[in-house]
Each structure stands twice: as structure tokens, then as C-alpha cells.
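So, who can interpret the following?
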Amino acid sequence: MNEVLRLDGVSKTYAKDGPAPVEVLRGVELTVARGEVVALVAPSGAGKSTLLHIAGLLDSPDSGRVLLQGRDMAGLSDRARTEARRRELGFVYQFHHLLPEFTAAENIILPQLANAVPQREAAARAADLLGRVGLAPRAGHRPAELSGGEQQRVAFCRALANRPALLLADEPTGNLDPETSDRVFDMLMTLVRETGLSALIATHNHDLAARMDRVIRLNEVVA
């Protein structure tokens, strides 16, 4: 199975206050191959966050299928969906969402402990990842003691801590200034390439999108 992710005819409509519901996605067809980094380009409000939530098993489509590593996610129990998210998916958002009371290393160790990884192994994995992004000296610092770019690098490491098959990222550098965004994105791409990870990265930055293997636009994957 060469595909890590397949969205097959995915549609989603939300009921809003007003005379008619709002159709956010209609008939989306999208694939991400093993080891491929795909840019998802769409303007704000076009449905890319909804698409990522569906791909990440945080939301369910009204119709269509989500296949993760060839397995149809439809009909899974909440517990099974949570288990799949924890073991097979990594998430990075525009804002880092680090736990403020824990250090950088602890933020990377905790999701591993939730997956029953032994403490020593989890700590070694955290140290390795922080070293790869140049943050080994900052391992004992809490998020408030880190810059915005450093916080986002820690968030990248946390997303990769459990060695997921697929990384989903929603404007992962959108909250940073252009120079920091460029530098942090390079580090993300290096991490992804070194680990052989697949990734679907939503961005409105066409320069960043051009550095990925393939660029798709949301209107091009909607029937």
C-alpha cells in the first residue's frame, strides 16, 4: 500500500443560523503517498481546516470515505479513532498549544507516555528531536521562556514524538514573522525528510508550498 491517506468523495455541510446550511466540502478526492509532502493551498474560509480535521479523525464527513494506511476509518468507535490518531497521526497548528507548566522536553515526552513508551526511551526520543532542531540547550525551559519560533519547533518535535505515519499541519508557521517562518519551515522539512514521514501541510504561502513535493489547491480536489 503506497498511499498513507486517501479522501474519497468527502463532503461536509454545517448548519448555520440563517435560511440554509453551509456546504464546506463537496466530493473531495485527495491522496498522500508514503514519504510524500503535499501542500494544500486555499484562502481563509475555504474549508482547509475542516479537511484537515476530517483527515485527522477529529471530525467525520457527511459522506465519502477516509482511508488511513488502507484502512477505512468509517464506523470505528470513538476509542478506536482516538487510538488511530495517537499512533498514526501527528498534528501541528498555527499556534503551538504547548502545555505551559511543562518543559520543552516534557511536552515531547508526555504524548509518548500516553502511548505506553517507557520513560527512558521517551526522554531519549525527546532529546534526539530537540537536538535535530537546535534546541538541546533549551530542553529544560518552559514555553514562556522560549521565543515563538522555538515554541513552534518544540511543537514539531512533539508531533513527531510517536513516529506517526502522517503529519497534518495547519498553517504551521503562520503566526511567525517572515524570516522566522522561513527558518522554522526549513527545520520542519528537514525533520520530515530525515524521518521519511508523509505530510499534508495547509498554507496560504505560495513560496513555502513550492518547496514541497506537490501542490494541490482545494478547488482542484472538489467535485
